[in-house]
From TrEMBL, chain B:
One of its GO terms (molecular function) is tryptophan synthase activity. Its EC number is 4.2.1.20. Belongs to the TrpA family. It comes from Solihabitans fulvus. The alpha subunit is responsible for the aldol cleavage of indoleglycerol phosphate to indole and glyceraldehyde 3-phosphate. Pathway: Amino-acid biosynthesis; L-tryptophan biosynthesis; L-tryptophan from chorismate: step 5/5. Keywords: Amino-acid biosynthesis, Aromatic amino acid biosynthesis, Lyase, Tryptophan biosynthesis. Tetramer of two alpha and two beta chains. InterPro entries: Aldolase_TIM, RibuloseP-bd_barrel, Trp_synthase_alpha_AS, Trp_synthase_suA. One of its GO terms (cellular component) is cytosol. SUPFAM superfamilies: Ribulose-phoshate binding barrel. It catalyses: (1S,2R)-1-C-(indol-3-yl)glycerol 3-phosphate + L-serine = D-glyceraldehyde 3-phosphate + L-tryptophan + H2O. This is Tryptophan synthase alpha chain. It is an enzyme of class 4 (lyase).
Length: 412, 265
């Protein structure tokens, strides 16, 4: 599975790469302290070498295959589809990867790069804990020191993942500043990075942040779309009508979208966390309701007030609870190549429950946003339509949240 | 023409470094910050940096984070920044603004420059804006006669020091350590080396910041830098003892910058 057939095919340069300074149209770039520019340049240079180095590409392919378990399955969901207007629903099963989500793809790639750069310490942020667990896993595998920053609110709602990271040998630092969620975990990781940049790589978990992260993270996840396109063609002999994926920072979405970006007949739909509803102001629907600005190093849409103070996002899903979004999504929104819609907490939880009961698959609440989008799109498009859904993660980590939400927990 | 050039020339003539003090606007309140900054100017700061409280201050340590949070909780609005700057300028002091870039972008880069210039502000220090991304700011600062103070760090390459210096005016801000803001016991030994490297590329004055909290440290920095920048220590003193404590620190630091310790540079 080397070269064009393996996951490393996602690393090949394409016409969709940003410009030399990391801009997708006007979006992206580097709004970062000068102190970190040298490290970003070093990372860019290491990646540009690695993406054309057969040794690196072979090693990445080998890890994806023999460690992460790729290619992930494509599963048709006929009983779920009855609730989605009868459209055919195909699930890209990133939940079956080692560590239970798509996050492992990017983590293995960046951990390999870390070793190539001669750094021995890795820091990361995490929201739901999926990226933190994946990072701790890759660091255990490769013998790297690992520190994960996690908002205090998230350490409480994702306690199981905190324990997982510790079992894997990582240090988990609860972040008590600001809204104590994902954005504040990124702030704290950046503060660590600027003080320890000589021996430390910041293993960013989403396709956001300063150049080259949006491109780097995207490319390590392009394997999702490359596999899915081939699998859908094999299964049904044609391309899907729609590709649906949840968007917080946007890494799983950008990875699957890119498999179809040059197929103009395929609609790309990102589903954002609508929280209590966009009209309530308590949501994380950055592309639906945000405005342009700079956060964590990139120029992109974000949630902010009139003074440019960053707003707090709200979502039942810790992994989507982020007031920014990767800059390439802002570009895809502006060019019209992709469309973005909000899904409320209630809609996501209904889809979460539905997939569990109809197909025996408990999805991550993040991925349930994409499933809820597929229900709506299926009803709009009818039974002729084929909808590919990126099932980005499994729901084991969310059982506690779901038990509370559906009142399944024993009363205390 | 830089309005700060004259200040640095006068300090050089006195064989001393300039004392540059930082405090966030709106901390602890808007009137409170005017009083504190006024006291800093009156008791020996040659220049003050008026900070813009921001929700996500990634370059700041706990002291300035807490001050920014307190100012925002007290209801600070960006429009009030200009009144704070005006209060300093009207009293004959010199002020620049130090701000993360998103609030400026949101306000409108040209509008921000216009309103800052009309309030009597002299320039802007931009901790998360590098010249590579600063096209709009380069234009707006020219149009409104403001100085552009970009940062250099120990990790900056020679090429980046040269290009950053070329895009800067007034002075260049050298971060003496790799890390966030906050008072430290020992001045980093990376600072003299960084200043030496900067001087190979530019005649601009060099201000050194990050970690200074005592007169002795100020004297040490004054041995090789043109400006000594103090931030977190002022915030801490303001929290502990208000205006009086801020005056005492200013006087101690002002004494320090007048007694530079000779270093081998």
């Amino acid at each position: 599975m080397v070269g064009s057939e393996g996951g490393s095919a996602g690393l090949l340069p394409t016409s969709h790469d940003p410009d030399a300074k990391g801009h997708f149209g006007p979006w992206g770039g580097r709004f970062m302290p000068e102190a970190l520019i040298a490290a970003l340049d070093e990372l860019s240079a290491a990646y540009e070498k690695a993406r054309v180095d057969p040794e690196f590409l072979n090693e990445f392919d080998r890890l994806l295959r023999d460690y992460a378990g790729r290619p992930s399955l494509l599963t048709e969901a006929p009983r779920f589809a009855k609730h989605a207007g009868g459209a055919r629903i195909l699930l890209k099963r990133e939940d079956l990867n080692h560590t239970g989500s798509h996050k492992i793809n990017n983590v293995l790639g960046q951990a390999l790069l870390t070793k190539r750069m001669g750094k021995r310490r890795v820091i990361a942020e995490t929201g739901a804990g999926q990226h933190g667990v994946a990072t701790a896993t890759a660091c255990a595998l490769m013998g790297l020191d690992c520190v994960v920053y996690m908002g205090e609110v998230d350490t409480e709602r994702q306690a199981l993942n905190v324990a997982r990271m510790k079992l894997l040998g990582a240090e988990v630092v609860p972040v008590k500043t600001g809204s104590r969620t994902l954005k504040d975990a990124i702030n704290e990781a950046l503060r660590d990075w600027v003080a320890n940049v000589d021996d430390t790589h910041y293993l960013l978990g989403t396709a956001a942040g300063a150049h080259p992260f949006p491109m780097l993270v995207r490319d390590f996840h392009r394997v999702i779309g490359i596999e899915a396109r081939r699998q859908v063609l094999e299964l049904i002999g044609r391309l899907p009508d729609v590709v649906a994926a949840c968007v917080g920072g946007g890494s799983n979405a950008i990875g699957i979208f890119h498999g179809f970006i040059d197929d103009p007949e395929v609609r790309l739909v990102g589903l954002e966390p609508g929280g209590d509803g966009v009209s309530t102001g308590r949501h994380g629907a950055t592309l639906t309701a945000g405005s342009p600005g700079m956060l964590h190093g990139a120029y992109s849409y974000l949630l902010q007030d009139d003074d440019g103070q960053i707003a707090e996002a709200h979502s039942i899903s810790a992994g989507l609870d982020y007031p920014g979004v990767g800059p390439e999504h802002s570009w895809l929104k502006d060019t019209g190549r992709a469309e973005y819609r909000p899904i409320t907490d209630a809609e996501a939880m209904e889809a979460f429950s539905l997939l569990s009961r109809t197909e025996g698959i408990i999805p991550a609440i993040e991925s349930a946003h994409a499933l809820a989008g597929a229900i709506k799109l299926g009803k709009e498009l009818g039974e002729e339509a084929v909808i590919l859904v990126n099932l980005s993660g499994r729901g084991d980590k969310d059982v506690d949240t779901a038990a509370k939400y559906f009142n399944l927990a024993p009363q205390e | 023409m830089s309005k700060l050039a004259g200040m640095f020339e006068a300090c050089r003539a006195e064989r001393r470094a300039a004392l540059i003090g930082y405090l966030p606007a709106g901390y602890p309140t808007v009137p409170g910050s005017k009083e504190l900054l006024g006291a800093m100017v009156a008791s020996g700061c040659d220049l003050v940096e008026v900070g813009v409280p921001f929700s996500d201050p990634v370059m700041d340590g706990p002291t300035i984070q807490a001050a920014a949070e307190e100012a925002l909780r007290a209801g600070f609005r960006l429009s009030e920044l200009f009144g704070v700057v005006d209060s300093i300028a009207s009293a004959g002091g010199r002020a620049v603004v130090m701000t993360y870039w998103n609030p400026v972008h949101r306000y409108g880069v040209d509008a921000f420059a216009r309103d800052l210039a009309s309030a009597g502000g002299l320039g802007v220090i931009t901790p998360d804006l590098v010249p590579d991304e600063a096209e709009q700011w380069l234009e707006a600062s020219e149009r409104h006669g403001l100085d552009r103070i970009f940062l250099v760090a120990p990790s900056s390459t020679e090429e980046r020091i040269a290009s950053t210096a070329k895009a800067s005016s007034g002075f260049l801000y050298a971060t003496s350590v790799m890390g966030v803001t906050g008072a430290r016991d020992v001045v980093s030994n990376a600072a003299p080396e960084l200043v030496r490297r900067v001087r190979e590329h530019t005649d601009l004055p060099v201000g050194v910041g990050l970690g200074v909290r005592s007169g002795a440290q100020a004297a040490e920095l004054a041995g090789f830098a043109d400006g000594v920048i103090v931030g977190s220590a002022f915030v801490t003193r303001a929290a502990e003892g208000g205006e009086r404590a801020v005056r005492e620190l200013t006087e101690e630091l002002a004494e320090g910058v007048r007694n530079p310790v000779a270093t081998i540079g």
